[in-house]
Amino acid sequence: METTSAETGRSKSEPNARNSSSYLCGQMLIAMPAMGDPRFAKSVIYLCAHSSEGAVGLVVNKPFDNISFLELLDQLEIEADRVGDHLPVHFGGPVESQRGFVLHSADFVEDATLVVDDKFALTATIDILREIAQGSGPSETLLALGYAGWGPGQLEAEFQENAWLNAPADSAIIFDQDVTHKWQRALAVLGIDQSMLSDNAGRA
To answer: pLDDT at position 77, please?
Structure first.
């Protein structure tokens, strides 16, 4: 998957921009077996925004092995009085890979929060990390560094190339820390077993 010019600067479809488009916003993208970009192999992406200007999402099943939530809080000089080291830090995508995003349940909203629907919201502020560190904040969270971005028409083109499937977002899948089976579980939402899928790219 190619990324937008936002990899070196902001794009109009960046996550902190409120987007009212219907499109596939709020759905899961599920990588097909023939996905050519190894960064997105067997990935599940929650699509936070999608419009004629492009799309933005977070990979939800690729946690980092080399950084923990407590280490991230320490780097940001945030005290963690009521949270353990159980919260993984995910690879959200290759765009702005040093910037943190929190995908969370919609029971927490601040001024900078992008409310996607009645179940999911996205916040990219230090304040939400402080709330989580103190044991408050949203009831469900997924912390990611970076995001995945597509330019105008780019995601649609990748669908034509059979790179992705889409399915309704399931919070039990998105926020579950058992990342090993998220891809298979996302396929199961569509009634698909991974053995049914072809490894060949291109149009059917």
So the answer is: 83
